[in-house]
Amino acid sequence: MNKIETKLVKAGEEILDEAAELLKSGGIAAVPTETVYGLAANAYNVNAVRAVFEAKGRPQDNPLILHICSTAMLYDIAASVPELAVKLAESFWPGPLTMIFPRKPHVPAETCGGLDTAAVRMPRSKFTLALIERCGFPLAAPSANTSGLPSPTSAKHVYEDMNGRIPLIIDGGECRYGVESTVVCFEGIDTVRILRPGAVTPEMLREYCHVVIDSGVLEKLDADAKVISPGMKYKHYSPNAEVYIVKGTDETIVEFLEDMNVNRTGYLGFGSEALPENVTAFPYGRTAEEQAENLFSSLREADGAGCAEVYVRMPDTAGIGLAVYNRLLRSAGFRVIDTCK
Ligand code: TXA
Ligand code: MG
């Protein structure tokens, strides 16, 4: 791919027209959302969508999420919208919930990874909502990282991965949640299945319906397993460093890290551990919200510091913690070390 010049600009009124013109002419641009940064294209323009797959190095069968700014746009995409979806949209949109619907025939198969369904969400960023409105079409946007690397939670992360590959990055500051949206599909009239956990937690969804957590959320899938959400089968969110999840108490984890006796060992913990000198600490946090916010940026920082191995303390899996653990399992290739044994 030829190198192109990448412009990095702050989100605001001034850039709306230029960004909308770029997207209308089939170009692509990185945009802020409340979860992670997205790499956006006109969802209805097959060539624009292909350019997104190419810039990310993303497998063609991994479908994109269509970002909308109004319910009218949802009805333009979805062939049918269950009543439960209307209720969830009223409660959680704009926000980090993605819902899967049968798609209308005019929605390109390429956008949806060849599936006959489309994933739809209304993001909360004021700028990105205004941009979608200005464009007049939904924006297909995967996370704006190189496929396989940790998702970008700041414009700087996007720049690290996409400099020279895309014409425009719009800087809307740090993302509020730090993990991607919750992805659900519908089963019957009163049940959702969580395919990817996020900031809209199972606890929150249970206020409205039955909730099934797909086995792929916490279990390793066979390479040839048939999955509803193709994104679940790929190695994901991994820095260059080898990542391991460590389970235990402050004491057993510190003892384990002392025994490692290797340099360039990174650690993401709760902040309460008295770490040995050979270990470099990166911010992670005590609460699930902090951990979600810091996870991807800390993994990137550990890479930047040249860590060969990174140990991450096992998070509590309540609330948004389920999303943290789901991403961590994938970045660690499902390697969990119990330091109490
Ligand atoms: O928060 C987010 O969702 C971010 C921001 C940019 O909105 N986007 C994001 O996109 O995380 P991406 O492409 O990195 O992840 C989309 C996930 C993948 O796991 C994909 O397989 C799943 O959603 N997905 C998309 N369309 C689907 C469909 N029709 N059926 C099942 N899964 C789908
Ligand atoms: Mg992604």
What's the total count of β strands?
A: 16
Structural class by SSE content: alpha/beta
Order of neighbouring strands in the sheet with most strands: 1-8-2-3-7-4-6-5-9-10-11
Can you list the ligands bound to this structure?
threonylcarbamoyladenylate, magnesium ion
CATH level-two architecture of the largest domain: Alpha-Beta Complex
How large, in whole angstroms, is the Cα Rg?
A: 20 Å
The percent of residues in helical segments reads 25-40%
CATH fold annotation of the largest domain: DHBP synthase
Beta-strand fraction estimate = 15-25%
Task: Please give a handful of descriptors for the protein shown.
341 residues; alpha/beta; DHBP synthase; Rossmann fold; 2 domains; eleven-stranded mixed β-sheet; five-stranded parallel β-sheet; binds threonylcarbamoyladenylate; binds magnesium ion
List the helices and strands and how they pair.
Blueprint: E1 7-10, H1 13-24, E2 29-31, E3 38-42, H2 46-56, E4 65-67, H3 71-77, H4 83-92, E5 97-102, E6 117-121, H5 126-135, E7 139-140, H6 155-162, E8 168-171, E9 182-187, E10 191-196, H7 202-205, E11 210-213, E12 242-247, H8 250-260, E13 265-268, E14 279-282, H9 288-304, E15 309-313, H10 321-331, E16 336-338
Helix pairs in contact: 1-5, 9-10
The chain binds threonylcarbamoyladenylate and magnesium ion.
